[in-house]
Amino acid sequence: MDNIAGKVIVITGASSGLGEAAARLLSSQGAIVVLGARRFERIQALADELIQQGGQALAQVTDVTRREQVQALVDAAVQAFGRVDVLINIAGLMPHSPLERLKVEDWERMIDVNLKGVLYGIAAALPHMQRQKSGHIINVSSVAGHKVGSGGAVYAATKHAVRALSEGLRQEVKPYNMRTTIISPGAVATELPGSATEADVAKNLHSFYESYAISADSFARSVAFAISQPEDMDVNEILFRPTRQEY
């Protein structure tokens, strides 16, 4: 894990779940973590805790649907610590519903957060990493980025798009000595099922996650694995599920 210590790592969606778990593990391994989320009190409390434990952390309120806030998050990292070594685009929503219910507002929210939020992160970090001639962008897809399930078509579409976008990015950043990773988790214990707006869908999602979900630490370990590899090794994609999960 020597390749983690001292790196400046920006994390969106850091107030809970995957983002919080990644921040805790990476900080424990010596990374400087810059935390972005809408719930500032949560990320500030996390930053304070990590600092008390001897780490370096900074919190910045960030709504990933607002490009200027994502830019401000990355710029804050560079201003405070001189560079940005890793960006982890985690923020996401999963309000599943059958298409026939025409939950258009939910569709738009997923596109804004799950896809445009990732694009805004890339737009903010890429110029800094190009100048540095180094950097690592980690985008979070899902098992749904590999398989489409009934009731999850729009969510799957956004997560397939994240994979396509990330592969295009991988090819384009070779001249800048940059690395890219897609991480596609299965059922992991987070607040994600709580974003469902249809009562019957939410009930089924919660039941599925209660039966199968594993700790968010599983995701954090995947992130740490990808970052910790030598700079000449580019871990492009990690797909993992709970051992018992069939889908």
Question: Your description of this structure?
Answer:
It is built from seven helices and seven strands; from the N terminus they run βαβαβαβαβαβααβ. With 247 residues, the protein is of the alpha/beta class. The chain has a single domain, classed as 3-Layer(aba) Sandwich (Rossmann fold), CATH 3.40.50. The chain has a seven-stranded parallel beta sheet, with helices on both faces. It is globular and about 50 Å long. The mean pLDDT is 95.
Tell how many strands the DSSP assignment holds.
7
Mean pLDDT metric: 95
Rg from Cα: 17 Å
Q: Class in CATH?
A: Alpha Beta
Brief characterization of the structure:
The protein has seven helices and seven strands, in the order βαβαβαβαβαβααβ. It has helices spanning about 15-30, 40-50, 65-80, 105-130, 155-170, 200-210, 215-230; strands spanning about 10, 30-35, 55-60, 85-90, 135-140, 180-185, 235-240.
Blueprint (SSEs and pairs):
Blueprint: E1 8-12, H1 17-28, E2 32-37, H2 40-52, E3 56-61, H3 67-81, E4 86-89, H4 104-132, E5 135-140, H5 153-172, E6 178-185, H6 199-212, H7 217-228, E7 237-240
Parallel strand pairs: 1-2, 1-4, 2-3, 4-5, 5-6, 6-7
Helix pairs in contact: 1-7, 3-4, 4-5
Labels describing this entry:
47% helix; 247 residues; 7-stranded parallel beta sheet; Rossmann fold; 7 helices; alpha/beta
